[in-house]
Amino acid sequence: MTLRIAVPVFGIYTVLIWFIAYYSDRDFIRGIAQAVIILFLCFNFCGIQRMAVELLITNALDRYSVGQIGNYIHQYEESSKAVIQKVGFYKDQNPCDKYYEFMKTEYFEDFAIKAFTQEWSDLNALNYYTGRNYVRAEVPDDIKERISSKDWSGLVLEEQLIFEGDTLYIAVY
């Protein structure tokens, strides 16, 4: 169950238990209901804190990765006198959607996803962190075929970035 479903379900049970505690005329039932509500609140609080930490870690690692790519782009532009204006993204053989080596938990399936693994955020993250305004480029089939057999587990910019004139192709690992 994802958190966007678990939190409302938690809320429904909490309200029901609160009604039982409020309308019960027995102190024993009220005490049990209050203890269960406190237990639900503790689990919910801990889960949200773990999720927030993983989101912060993911955002920091995305920012670091884009910063490294931005530095590499700057070096290319200085040495070649070309200005990168278009960026295309392609995936290696086994792209990973999270930084699992830095995550403490493996739940929260749809949270803490790497920015480059989602088409709606890859170019936006690059533009945001570099302060540039790149446009999306289609990756040629020959580059896709050449890289599709690779399986990176981290940043190897010399291999993952392919420059062609004013276009950059970035491998998503």
Helix-strand blueprint:
Blueprint: H1 3-23, H2 27-80, E1 86-91, H3 119-130, E2 135-136, H4 141-147, H5 157-160, E3 161-164, E4 167-172
Parallel strand pairs: 1-2, 1-4
Antiparallel strand pairs: 3-4
Helix pairs in contact: 1-2, 2-3
Q: Measure the end-to-end span.
A: 27 Å
Tell me the fraction of residues in β-strands, as a range: 5-15%
Helix content percent band: 55-70%
- The spatial strand order of the largest sheet comes to 2-1-4-3
Question: How would you sum up this structure, described in words?
Answer:
This protein is an alpha/beta fold and 173 residues long. The chain has 5 helices and 4 strands. It is elongated.
Short account of what is shown:
The chain has 173 residues and is of the alpha/beta class. It is built from five helices and four strands; from the N terminus they run ααβαβααββ. A four-stranded mixed sheet has the order 2-1-4-3.
Short key terms for the protein model shown above:
single chain, 173 residues, alpha/beta, 4-stranded mixed beta sheet
